[in-house]
Every structure is written in structure tokens, then in C-alpha cells.
User: Fold these one by one.
Assistant:
Number 1:
Amino acid sequence: MRIVSSGVAAMLVAMLACASGCPDRGKEAKESRPVVRGVSLETVRPVSVPELFEVSGTVKAKNHAPIAARISGTVSGVHAKEGDRVRQGSLLMTIDSREALAGAAGAEHAAAEALARKKLADVTYERFSRLFEEQAVTRQELDTRRAERDMADRALARAREASRAASTVAGYTRITAPINGIVTSKSVDPGATVFPGMPLMTVEEEGQYRLEVAVPESLLGRVSAGASVPVVLDGDADNAVGRVVEIVPKVDPVSRTFPVKLDIPSTGALSGRFGRAQLPVGEKRGILVPKTAVVERGQLTFVWTVDNGNIARMRLVKPGTSQGDRIEILAGLSAGERIVVGGVEKVTDGAKVE
């Protein structure tokens, strides 16, 4: 007779009990699956999307005025510094140029003398004209006085023109703002000696900016003026929209690129900022999904897919550029799959979608 140990006997009893009344673990897990309701689904379909090429460049003011010296002299006063906002016509700098001032004074004196000679020639001609009528002088004497009057007229005109020119040159000693804007650079300080053509200041108009980018020569002819372009400035999280306003069809022989200029929104724009633009250069087949479908958690970017059994699964994706309220998915999704596009905050991995 075989004797069964107490431990083995207890195990046999437990197995017999489970055979008659133990719960189904798989069924229990299936019944405990969370259920999600009130979400929106969309089937992924390939569509035609713009083919974009990213280029980088620098933000510049649409209107800027570099100011250079027009005469030689010494800077006697600087009345604006970098960062100052100035109005058109306001005084920025003064230059001490005694030669220019002396030339203006001499030209003005010469004009006054020419005017005096002109008046004398007019009076003399009128007197000789009356004497000629009285036959007191000959016609030759009258013609001589007429010629003197005409030469005095021409001499006065030349003197006045020279005086205006000298006054204009003397006016170059006062440097004024050519536009409303902000002073972005100042090259000289009081006491500095300047010469014609030497840079003094730069004034840039606020509120209108452009992003100037360098585009590879292989894309020449594929960029269209007037195209709306996604633009992002360095440090900004959100994209803006720029517009291609100028394409310079000249390739730099060193960089093998050509310039393209885009008008951009003024919000956050400052001269010198680094920016990137996505230029449309053609079309391709791709996948666009609503931005509401894309979830970002830490370093992960994913969407919720729903399989044939209506079970939600997390799917990591690689997003591309935005196209209005939709975003391109470069990897992670295939045509025909269903994704959650509304109510994503309700979904958990493995939940049943109803």
C-alpha cells in the first residue's frame, strides 16, 4: 500500500477544486480591459504634399539707411546712440568742417557781388536806352551796354548756383536721420576725423523685416515668387508664415547659392536673428494627420492607432512640417491604418475603443 504525503495530497485537492470551480484568468483579463468612448477616428490615406527644402539665413530690416560722411572734418558731436529711436530729420551727428563753411561764406559773398553788378548793368542799360532815343549815343554804345547787362545776368545765375552748392556742402556738417527708425550701429565718436564715404551710422525702420536666405543653385527656377513659406526664427517654438518677395537669379561663384528674400511677420523679428525657411520646390506623396492626433510626452512623439479588434495601441511616429492644421508624418504610419484624432486624452494603451 502506497502512502501519499500530506503536501502532495493538498496539491491534488487544490487541482481538483480548480477543475470544478477555478476562475478563467484570460477571461478575467479580457473583461477588465478599459473601454474608451467618445473619441474620433480617421483612416490614414496618402495625399499630395509640398516637397520642402530647408534653408537658413539672417533677418534684416526691409528698409535700412547706412549713413556715410560726405565731407572731411572732425566729429564735433554725437546726438544719438545705438538703440535710440529717431524721427526723420532729427539731428544725429555734427561735423566741424571749416573749409566747407568758409566755402559757403565765400560763395554767398560772390553771389551778393554778382547781384550788385547785375543791378548796375540794368540801370546803365536803361539810361543808355533813353539816351539812344534822344540820339545822344550811338547804337554801338547801346549794344555794348546790352551785352554787359546780359553777361551780368549769366554771372549772377552762376554765382547763385555756386552759392546753393556751397550751402549744400556746408549742410553736410549736420547729419540727420533719413527715415523713422532705430539706430543699429554707430562707427565714430566725438573727435574722430572723417572723410567722404566713411560710415557713420545705420538707421533701420522698425516693423518691416525680411529673412534673406541662400538657396543652392540646383533649385534655381524651382522657387516661385509669392509662395507662402513656413519660417521659424532661432529660439521661437512656433512657426510663422513668410512670403517670397524677391528672387535674385545670380549664383555666387564661391558658395554656389543664390539669394531669396522673404517678408516675415514683425513679431519677435530683430535684425541679425538666425532663421530657417521651408521652401516649396515640388510635390510628393505623403501622409498628413490632424495636429490633434499627435501626442508629445517628454522625448516621445506618438499617435494612438486602433486595430481591427478596436484595441488602442501607442505608435511612435516621426513628424515633419506643418501644413495648416495638419502635420506630415515621415515615419511610423501606413496607409489604411486608423488613428484617434479627437479625444486622445481619454485613450490608454490596450484600451477598447467603442
Number 2:
Amino acid sequence: MKTIIINGANGYVASNFIYKLLELKYKVIALVRPGVKSSPKERMEEALTEINDGAYVNTTNLKVFAYSLLHKDFLIPSKELEKIFSGDVDYFHFAASLKFDLKSKDEIFGTNVGGTENSLNVFSKYATENSRFFFIGTAYSCGRFTGRFEEKFYPNEGIENFRNYYEQSKRIAENIVKEHIEKDAMNGHVIRLSQVVGDNKTGVTKTDYGIFDFAKRMHSLAFRHPNQTVRVHVSPTSTQNLIPIDTVVNYLIRTVEVKYVPTIMNFIAKNQIKNIHIIKSISELLPINIVPERQLEREEMNALERIIAAGMTFTENYIDTNLLFDTKNLDNILMAAGHEVSENSVYKMLEYFIENLAAQKEKGAMISAL
């Protein structure tokens, strides 16, 4: 059985992927940055425990290494890298900065572009001929593209064609992978993820990204100012492309199992969820009445609405989207049956997430009282 190497291994999607790989008895090598107060191994084990709701995870087949994404050879001794990459491996590059704003531009491009280039260099230097490189990109590298975003490479473009620097950096990183495929005959692949949410079957949600970041802000506001009606700058009929974490993991496992994999695959949801359903669900779950308005100028907002708007600098870029994606490669080559989110499953995810926030709040209050 091949070895799976994963960098950025303690992230949400990567740790769920590793959990499943270990369950299937794959040998996994996790590359993790050291924390301020915790070792890479501790960070990895904490991530695995968190997604498993605190239950024991068998890590017999897991090896964890400290690495530095932007340094030559990841600051790992060359002899160690030779061992890590020996034999046929599938290498997954998950590491990324999720920041998006102008003030973080250098960090975004340093991590998402420079880090990808360095990762490709390490792979090219140490991996064997039959090994494969998988770049975990984003479906939102489509930027402001209109039409159906196909499973192919698109040229680099200026920031005016993207919603933020994160999207632009991931498009540039994709094309760096393309260069290595063409110039070095590297066995490279790009996997584009849309917004990854919780488990579609159980509702268990361990991410606070996207719609859950919005729910988190509403939770805080609702308990400081309960039973208020607030307007938010959101198009109620526009949609969010939400793909469940269990579906993503199943697709990733299938990618490992299949011998011949397409160069680019869009891991996205075909059934999108309207903003109005997300808004109504949060309003039902919290003591707050949220009213979405497509046209809402800041000078029209009250104090609470301006607080919400200030926290939506990222989310606001996606309030009026109905994106279309091609999935021929995913459908015809992987032949993996995905499970689409429904209004009911999204409600369950939001319910789990909000209940967990409330439990954390209550725990924090008890600790403060001691």
C-alpha cells in the first residue's frame, strides 16, 4: 500500500482525510508546523481528537514531522526526506493562507504562491518517478468569471478579476503546478474545493469558515443584544456552494485509489443552497431576526447593522453569487457517488455548530466564576 504525505496536515479537511486514511490502514506522513506551545505531533493529535469528538484515534500508521513551508527542503535533513519520499507516494499540498485582505497580501502570496513553488521543488527533488503531486486549490480561483468554470487551467489575471487576493493567489499557484507538469513531466494534479462544511449525515461541524463564521458573529450579537431585528447586506435568492466534509473525504480517498487521475477536478456541490435558507435557519436557532437585503447601503444601517457589516468584509464578497462549475472529470473518472447537502442537512450543521458555541460560552463562564 502506498504512503500518503500531507502538508498543512492539521487543517480541517486534511485532518479529516488523515483520519479516514488511518482507518483504511494507509501509512500517512503528516508535515505540520510547530506551534507556539505545542509540538507538531501534539497539534496533529489534537486535530484528530477534535474531529472525532474527543474519542481515541489509532495513530499507529501515522508519522508526524516538523516542517517549514517556505524554507529549502522544509528544514528537514535531506536523508530524512529521502526516506519520507521513498517508494511510490501520493503527496497532498494542503498548506495555505486563508487571509484575503490587502494588508495581508505579502503573507497570502508568500504562503500560497511561494509555498506552493517550494513544495513542488521538494517533491521534484525527492519523489520517485511514479509518485503523484496533488495541489489542493479552491473552486473560487474562478474569480469573477461568468459561465461554467471548467476543469482546465485558466491564465493569470489582475486583481480586478477576483474578489480578493486569496482567490488570485490560488489561480497563480495552479499555474505554477501547470509549469511543473509541462516542463518537468511531473505527475501533478489540481483539486479545487468549494466551501467545505460539516458532515452531511451527522451534522457534526468542526469548521468556523464561511457560513459558520457568519453564524458565529450572529451568535455573539444575539446574546449581547437579544430579540433584535437586523438587516444584512445579502442577496436572499443567491446561493452558496457547500460541499460536505464526508463527501470531500470520500472523493480524496477515491483519488488515492484510482491509478489514472485527471489533471484538474472541481470538488463542488451540484445542488446549491440559497442564502435565504441559511439566514432563516440562523434566525430560528438564535434569539435574533435577520432580514437579508440585496440593496443595503452602510449609511442606511443602524449601529448593530454596521457592526455586522464590519465583520462581513470577506463574506460580503460572496453574497450575490450563483456559480457554475464543470464536473465531467469528477463524474466520469472518479465515479464516486457524492452526497449533496440539503436544506435539512445545512440546518443540522448550523444547529450543531451553534449548540457547540453555546456550550463553549457556558464553559467559559463557569471557569471565569471559579
Number 3:
Amino acid sequence: MIIESEKQPKQYREVAKLSTEILWQLHQKVAVGVTPLEIDRLADELCAQHGVTPNFKGVGSQDNPYQHATCISVNDAVVHGIPTDQPLMEGDLVKVDFGMNYQGLNTDHCFTVGVGEVTAEDRKLLTVGRQAVLKAAQSAIAGKTAGDLGHLMESIADQHGYTVAKEYVGHGIGKTLHERPQLPAWGKPGTGEKLMEGMVICIEAQLIDGDNELYTAEDGWTVKTVDGSKAVMFEFMVLVGKDKATFLTPTMDWPLVV
């Protein structure tokens, strides 16, 4: 959506602040021995407590609608992971994606965190993954294009020997969960839709420590790497400004390892 009234920025900041507070509590829940299902149940409880609606439930086809408040993707699961009852283990990379609807406005954001002792390689993947998306989000100013932001994310990934998932993209958000523009984590500078002042957008990327060939698991949702390599995902919601992007979900300083 494009913010057009004086009241909307304040309202959206309040909704995004609440969503970020919920996501932080999910971050705090991640630990060795905790299951993704327990984290998902906490998300449901927090949504009920605050009178908000989790965004992901019911998304998808009538044959296989998504049934959880979160997507939790571990290690080689790249995106759209269905929360399981498999306890988290030392060294896991855990991606928690969450969104909600409140007062007719939607949120969508994601963090990745390492559990306990992680390898130096995984810590680097976490650091570079967040940096790539953060740099793109900071560049979300009027006049930039989707290709400008995507090229920046892909270039940072390439510099460190990583690939980006090309099937999944960032997006506009507002009255609905997915709106224009589409914002791939790859592209050519100067191409794609131009950003306009007042746009509310979600900038995301999945960085993979290996090949970016993916497949969907038998559950119809969880997307994994074919070669078994690990992936991280970060997603920020920002308000496009004339000279500066405003972060609606400022999760950039959260711990990368818990």
C-alpha cells in the first residue's frame, strides 16, 4: 500500500511495533530442546492475548491450506517450513517467519538464529544474510527500483560464495498480505518497478550456503535445498521515504545466536 493520510504512518507503526514484540518473544523461545510446534503455539497464544489474527493460517490451496501462525524452517529448510515436534538441536539454524493482521493492516517479517554453539561457517552465513537484506532495506528510497535492491542483495551473497533463492520474493504489504511491487533478491540495477514515497514493503532474501536448487517436501509446503545445504532468511518491513527508509520492524540488532 501507499501511505496517503497523516494518520496511517502512526497507525502502521503501532501495528508493526506489536508484531515485532510478538516476534521477539518467539526469538526468546528458541533454545535447545524446544520444538518448532512449541514456538508456534506461543505465537497463537500471543495473538489471542493481543486480539490480533495470525496472517498465514488459511493461505494456499483449498486442498492444503496452511494451518499455523508461523513458518519455522530449520537448516536445509529454506522457507515455508511447517512447525514440527522435532526438538531443536545444538547448531541448528532456525528461521521464524511471522505476520499478523490488526485494524485492517498486515505485517510480515522473519529472523534466523543459530542455536547454541554454531560453526564459524554458519555464523558467517547468518551475518552476511542479515547484512544483505539490511543493506537493501536501507536503500528503499523513492526512485530506486526493485532491480536496484535485488542486485544489491545478490551481489553481497555472491561476494561470499552464497546463492539466493529465486523463487520467493519480497513484496508490498498493507490491506492485504501480498501487494505490489514484487521485490526479488536478485536483479539488474534500474529494472523493475520503481519505489514510491509512502510505499510499505517487505524486503526479504533467503541466502543458501550451496546450490539454490530447491524442492518442496511431501507436506506440500516446506521448501528444502536439494544438496542439503543450510539457508538463512531475513525480512524487514519498511516505509519508503523520499531520502530515507523507515524501519517498521527494527529487528536488525537482535542476537544471531542464542
